[in-house]
Amino acid sequence: MQMLPRLIVPDPDRASAFYQETLGAKQTFRAPEGDDGRPSVVFHDLGEQSFRVSPAVSEWGWLSPDDIGGSAVLLEVVADDPDAVGKRMVDQGAEVVVPIENRPYGMRSGRIRDPFGHLWILTGDLR
């Protein structure tokens, strides 16, 4: 069994470029464009994990965080350097929700909202 998260966004190509640039995700498949000019799905690998990006399509119930007033899911990435990942995300239009800092529970972590409304916990070892 495998679980493959699918992030719903207004612009899958823009989101794909963001995740490739900031997280180092590798695009492995892009469906042909539909009538609206957007692909129905873009596949990505991130280390040993995979995720997909698809456009918001309200009649299918595929709603982006902006459509529902915020992200209903937290995505956690464990990185060797969460500060560097966070900086790349912010440099590309994300916003810091909780600064990346050493936490009393023994991890370095913080939260970032990407330009598409998804919330990310960036975690790594203490500095």
Characterization of this structure:
The chain has 127 residues and is of the alpha/beta class. Helices cover 20% and strands 36% of the residues. The chain is built from three helices and eight strands; from the N terminus they run βαβββαβαβββ. The strands form two sheets. The protein has a four-stranded mixed β-sheet with strand order 1-4-3-2, covered by helices on one side. Strands 5-8-7-6 form a four-stranded mixed β-sheet, covered by helices on one side. Helix 1 packs antiparallel against helix 3. The chain is globular and about 50 Å long.
What is the secondary structure topology, with strand pairs?
Blueprint (H helix, E strand, L loop, with lengths): L5 E4 L2 H12 L2 E5 L11 E5 L2 E7 L9 H4 L5 E5 L3 H10 L3 E8 L5 E6 L5 E6 L3
What are the defining features of this structure?
127 residues; alpha/beta; 4-stranded mixed beta sheet; 3 helices; 8 strands; 20% helix; 36% strand; globular
Radius of gyration: 15 Å
Helix content: 10-25%
Q: Helical segment tally? A: 3
According to DSSP, the number of beta strands is 8
Reported for the largest beta sheet, the result is: 4 strands, mixed
Low-confidence blocks of residues: none
Fraction of residues in β-strands:
35-45%
Order of helices and strands: EHEEEHEHEEE
Order of strands across the main sheet? 1-4-3-2
Q: Give the overall silhouette.
A: globular
End-to-end separation in angstroms reads 36 Å
Name the structural class: alpha/beta
What do the pLDDT scores average to? 96
